[in-house]
Design brief:
The protein is 39% helix and 11% strand. About 10% of the residues have low confidence. The strands form three sheets. It has a five-stranded antiparallel beta sheet with strand order 3-6-7-8-9, with no helix packed on it. Strands 1-2 form a two-stranded parallel ribbon. Strands 4-5 form a two-stranded antiparallel ribbon. It is an alpha+beta fold and 367 residues long. Among the domains are: 53 residues; 112 residues, no CATH class; 66 residues, no CATH class. The longest helix has 23 residues.
Length: 367
């Protein structure tokens, strides 16, 4: 009798328990088959084996025996050698960064499109419940980037909904490895160069069909930083020592001219596709770092002369105010220059002079 593992014995015990419950008519045979994970026909065979051989009939009799369908060892080693040495393959899996890189290239070369129709993979959508609708409030990194460009994302809820693209994937997966083998390409960089320079153009020449109308629906992208949009962004709080942390990496934020420290502030860490890291606080970039972690100089756009930060700095002075010039004021000097208020003697003299002028005028009138 072959030596069985503990897992095989445990499975045989569970199968026996289910069969005994079905024989006692506590459950039906189709329910027993569903519990074990067999079809009705296989369940009948298991029942017959148990009735004929007892508990030993529930064990897998293939255990310890070589498969009759196995290939010779020499042939298996030859296939493995060809797979490792001769046939090229693209090893990068579909992920957030690879999808972003593809979308960035299309938008940069062709322009912005209206909508993206894709499956419900985690790098496209967040799905709260398995098999349920996608979340429109909680966006993925790809969803956030496309929303910033005004591109709508449409989720496919069945394989049949994306039948045409899935069939194309099957065609490319069948043709592309053979093309790479004939071109003797074994590296990923060489394969990508072959796709851009030869394969895509040849596919378009052979299988493209002239459109009924000229033009396209792509719109140019102006005034938007695609390098920043297609980056993996995380929001973090700045520590008291003016550092920010993401996973096992920590960045020191230098002091800025408009704020001494950013401790307690929320910043956005942008991981670019080439490994660079940019840290932003609102519209301000407070740190640029290389993939290895060293600090990069903040590059700023050239400004017009004497404008903004590029203008020469001068000490602030209050401008002098110039007043218009007037002629000197006319004034009558009195005998008492120390006072502008007339005294009693001066008032009497003035009154006497006025009275004499009146009398003189009256005399002249009578004459």
């Amino acid at each position: 009798m072959p030596k069985y593992s503990a897992v095989a014995w445990e499975r045989a015990m569970k199968v026996q328990e289910v069969i005994l419950r079905a024989m006692a008519k506590k459950i039906t045979w189709w329910q027993a088959a569903e519990i074990i994970g067999l079809s009705d026909r296989s369940m009948r065979r298991w029942r017959r084996r148990y009735e004929e051989h007892g508990y030993d009939g529930l064990l897998d009799r293939r255990w310890g025996k070589p498969s009759p369908k196995r290939v010779p060892l020499a042939q298996a080693e030859e296939v493995l050698r060809l797979y490792q040495e001769k046939y090229a393959q693209l090893v990068e899996e579909e992920s957030t960064r690879t999808v972003m890189a593809g979308l960035w290239e299309v938008i940069e070369r062709k322009g912005r499109f209206c909508a993206l129709y894709s499956d419900r993979a985690s790098h496209f959508f967040h799905t709260p419940a398995a098999g349920g609708p996608v979340s429109r409030e909680r966006l993925s990194q790809v969803g956030r980037a496309l929303q910033g460009l005004g591109i709508q994302m449409i989720a496919a809820y069945s394989p049949q909904a994306r039948g045409r693209s899935e069939r194309r994937f099957g065609t490319w997966q069948g043709r592309l490895p053979q093309e790479l083998r004939l071109a003797q390409i074994t590296g990923v960089e060489e394969a990508n160069r072959f796709l851009r320079e030869h394969y895509i153009g040849e596919m378009n020449r052979k299988f493209s069909v002239p459109a009924a109308q000229t033009g396209h629906a792509f719109m140019p992208v102006r005034g938007q930083d695609l390098d920043l949009i297609f980056s993996v962004q995380h929001e973090r709080a700045v520590a008291q020592d003016n550092t920010v942390r993401l996973a096992d990496r920590t960045w020191q934020i230098e002091r800025t001219s408009w704020r001494g420290t950013l401790a307690g502030c929320r910043v956005t860490i942008c991981e670019h596709l080439d490994g660079r890291v940019t840290i932003a606080h609102g519209p301000h970039v407070v740190g640029r770092y290389a993939a290895a972690g060293e600090t990069l100089a903040n590059s700023q756009k050239a400004r017009a002369p004497r404008c903004g930060n590029a203008a020469p700095r001068k000490a602030w002075k209050t401008p002098k105010t110039s007043f218009p010039l007037f002629s000197p004021r006319l004034e009558i000097r009195h005998k008492t220059p120390d006072s502008h208020i007339p005294t009693a003697t001066t008032a009497a003299v003035a009154l006497k002079i006025v009275q004499e002028k009146k009398n003189q005028n009256r005399t002249d009138h009578l004459l």
